[in-house]
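Give me the fold.
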Amino acid sequence: MELRRVNPQPPPADAESALVTPQGLREQYESGATVTELVAASGLSYGTVLNRLREADTAMRTSWQTRRLRDGQARRNLAAHLRRLYEQQGATLAELATTASVTRRAARRLLIEAGGAPRTSQQTQRIRSAARAAERQKLALSLRARYEAGATVPDLAEECSYSVGTVYRLLHQAGTRMRPKHNHGPARTPRKRS
């Protein structure tokens, strides 16, 4: 009787499946899974999961941040807060991510969960430009009120740490009626016409 060698079956391709690739692990992690949960689901060792997350440039969370991300009411509150920052103050997704201590992708997901709609970078620039223009107009009106109360342009420039030229531009922007310039030099004799 001849014994035939049977080739062992190759190990399952879990290591190559989409769920255990560095990018797949990162997506699960950013959705709120913990490293321990990824270890249990993938069958990989703790160190391998960590290495693959690092390989995918994953921003790691603290346990407190994970609880905050996963807790239902806290997550809804955070999402609503991020939406307010995004829509009312023109914050970027990167700024939301910093505020929430999450990745940019997780911040985008929270924004969408709160009913927000991500915008293009051009839309963000327009919002920020409008906010700066409104702030500048507010400053111009404040300078106008102080100028009309008797302050001089050089005094206003010094108080605001702006140049005299900038203060003049802001005063003109606010529609300020300028006082006549004073001649501080010696009196000039008028020219005689012949």
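The mean pLDDT is 81.
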